[in-house]
Amino acid sequence: MELAGRAAIITGAxxxxxxxxxxxxxxxxxxLGLLDSHAAAxxxxxxxxxxxxxxxxxxxxxxxxxxxxxxxHCAQHCGSIALLFANAGVLRAxxxxxxxxxxxxxxxxxxxxxx
Length: 115
Hints:
By secondary structure, this protein is an alpha/beta fold. It is built from three helices and four strands, in the order βαβαβαβ.
């Protein structure tokens, strides 16, 4: 599939895999719609990429109305959307041995199947 000139929408684009996906998509000539809940990290990603970023919004993916607004902005400003990376989620850092054995409460709606 030819990706140049088409758009990729990436949640969790402020760091880690999301940032790597954004950088790779931009290198392939795609326009981008980026979303993250951390404004500073998202701004850094967008600044690194530059003009390929058509939409970059700080959004909590648990807020359905905000996600719909983001999607509408992407539809208006990004062109033909070819790829969607629903990458946003909660990350725990550190050694596995240092993580609690009991399940930890998650914000409702994050890391849920189908997002």
